[in-house]
Design a protein that fits this description.
The chain has 90 residues and is an alpha+beta fold. The chain has 1 helix and 5 strands. Strands 1-2-3-4-5 form a 5-stranded antiparallel sheet. This is DUF1292 domain-containing protein.
């Protein structure tokens, strides 16, 4: 049949590879970019899992930057906003 990898319902342009400090790489589907607390965030789904990773997100020209959310209070508020948006999508 086809040797194309399983994209788990994502278009190829909606997949990005996260590279962690330990050298591990994980392909993730982009669930979406959303605003919360006056900033932009991105929600990513590691392919083949039900997990969701949320990062701060900054884009300029053709470049983008993912920013770790180090503050627990900020993270909890962003997760709550993402969950609210996810429910509205259904």
């Amino acid at each position: 049949m086809s040797d194309k990898k399983d994209l788990y319902g994502y278009e190829e342009e909606d997949i990005m590879t996260l590279e962690f400090d330990d050298g591990e790489a994980t392909e993730c589907g982009i669930l979406g970019v959303f605003d919360a607390l006056g900033k932009e965030y991105i929600a990513l789904n590691p392919l083949g899992t039900e997990d969701v990773y949320i990062y701060g997100y900054r884009e300029s020209d053709e470049e983008y930057e993912l920013i770790d959310i180090k503050d627990d209070d900020e993270f909890n508020k962003v997760v709550a906003e993402f969950e609210k948006l996810a429910v509205e999508e259904v």
